[in-house]
Write a structure and sequence with these properties.
The complex is a heterodimer of chains A (105) and B (315). Chain A has 105 residues and is mainly α. Helix content of chain A is 54%, strand content 6%. In chain A, α1 crosses α2 and α3 packs across α4. The longest helix of chain A has 24 residues. Chain B is an alpha+beta fold and 315 residues long. Chain B has 3 domains: 124 residues, Orthogonal Bundle (Helix Hairpins); 85 residues, Sandwich (HSP40/DNAj peptide-binding domain); 98 residues, Urease metallochaperone UreE, N-terminal domain (HSP40/DNAj peptide-binding domain), CATH 2.60.260.20. Chain B is 27% helix and 25% strand. In chain B, the strands form 4 sheets. Chain B has a 4-stranded mixed β-sheet with strand order 6-7-11-10. The radius of gyration of chain B is 29 Å and the shape is elongated. The chains are: A mainly alpha (105), B alpha+beta (315).
């Protein structure tokens, strides 16, 4: 029998710090350090109590990128954050470029 | 199951040093980085490279793999089964493998090292929640307008009574809600790796991406589409019909429009909680000048309109 299951969007039901860390196989402290460096959440979303932080789709995808870059190139978190910034910007520009070509194809 | 030549995947010799393994891995990690690589199969290649690195960068795993490989001359492919007790005397480290997600690894890797931490974990009696798995799901733009149901077949590692890892196919139907857009992540509770010794299964996280569409371009929640119009429709204004993802609509083209003009249909983009907009980009299509009658029309326009499209260029 095939199981029917409803998709839950991370933007509707967000992850907390422990869930995010466990899912990405990193420690709680690893995530806290990157949030405190300004690499993961927007400044206004960072309260004093890490247990109150919430992580949505964007932060989930971003942390995975940062993990991969830090791991693959053994680089420091700031450099991985910079790569993640650039990749996000490239994605936006590519989408923008494609949208602008809608009338030309 | 195919034998994998991890040395070939990383492009290194059998006697490569740990430093050479690391350098080869980094070079390939840059080449196949899925966000920037131009290679068509970059994602698959990156998984293979990660897997090869997980084995060759770990001295215990590499030693066990080398012993196995030497018996068959590292010949890739073929029907391969590891001999019983092949891993005796090796103690693999716990899960994680430098953080790479082992769920992405091949059957060959799963058979040798297990998906849940290798021989060490297989013999363990400790309780452990299942690993979360991460993957992507490709949707069509139309799916987000109506909601859809997608059948997913997952290869799920299960532990048999001897504690060995077996991969089994597991199919589930996922109801995708209306209004989903690229870059959102779906969580399917309990559909990740199995728990160990009675603990809960992990979750499955799917990153939503859209298949490229022949007519529509997607930018976040906004959709862009070309609206072909005749010169007289653009010049005089017209009401034209156009099929959109949520059905046929009539659109008013304002008079004196040019190619490239954008008509915004508010709220007709991706139907999220705050819906996106749909932009129609006008594309004036000239009728062909093939017959004498058509050529005469153009000739009359040339004479009657006295139009110079290069006036702004000073010529």
């Amino acid at each position: 029998m095939t199981l029917e299951i409803d998709a839950i969007l991370l933007d509707d039901v967000t992850l907390n710090l422990d869930e995010l860390a466990r899912s990405c196989q990193v420690s709680r402290e690893w995530v806290i350090e990157r949030v405190q460096c300004g690499l993961l959440l927007d400044e206004e979303a960072v309260s004093a109590d890490p247990a109150a932080w919430i992580f949505d789709s964007r932060s989930f995808i971003r942390i995975k990128r940062i993990i991969a870059v830090e791991r693959d190139f053994e680089c420091n978190p700031e450099l991985a954050g910079l790569v993640a910034d650039l990749v996000e910007e490239i994605e936006q520009l590519r989408a923008c470029l494609q949208a602008s070509q809608a009338g030309g194809n | 199951m195919e034998f994998k030549d991890y040395y070939k995947i990383l492009g290194i010799s059998r006697d490569a040093t740990a430093d050479e393994v690391k350098k080869a891995f980094r070079r390939l990690a840059r080449k196949y980085h899925p966000d920037v690589s131009k290679e068509a199969d970059a994602e698959q290649k990156m998984k293979e490279v990660n897997e090869a690195n997980a084995v060759l960068s770990d001295p215990e795993k590499r030693a066990a793999y080398d012993q196995l490989g030497q018996e068959r001359g590292f010949q890739a492919g073929g029907d391969f089964q590891p001999p019983p007790g092949w891993d005796a005397g090796f103690e693999f480290r716990g899960q994680g493998f430098n953080g790479a997600h082992t769920a992405d690894f091949s059957d060959f890797f799963a058979e040798l090292f297990g998906k849940q931490g290798g021989a060490g974990a297989r013999q363990s009696h400790r309780r452990m929640r299942g690993e979360d798995h991460h993957a992507k799901i490709m949707l069509d733009l139309e799916d987000t307008y109506h909601g859809t149901s997608r059948s997913l077949t997952l290869r799920v590692p299960k532990l048999d009574s001897q504690g060995r890892t077996l991969l089994t196919d597991h199919t589930l139907n996922v109801r995708i809600p209306k209004g989903v857009h690229a870059g959102q992540v779906i969580r399917l509770a309990g559909q990740g790796g199995p728990g160990i010794n009675g603990e809960a299964a992990g979750d499955l996280f799917l990153e939503v991406q859209f298949n490229p569409h022949s007519r529509y371009r997607i930018e976040k929640k906004d959709i862009y589409a070309a609206l072909p119009v005749a010169p007289w429709e653009a010049a005089l204004g017209a009401t034209v019909k156009i099929p959109l993802p949520d059905g046929l609509v009539e659109v008013r083209v304002p008079e004196n429009s040019q190619s490239g003009r954008k008509l915004r249909l508010k709220g007709r983009g991706i139907p999220a909680a705050i819906p996106g907009d749909l932009y129609l980009v006008l594309e004036v299509i000239l009728p062909p000048a093939a017959t004498q009658k058509e050529r005469d029309f153009y000739q009359t326009m040339a004479q009657e309109l006295a139009f110079n499209p290069r006036q702004n260029l000073g010529v």
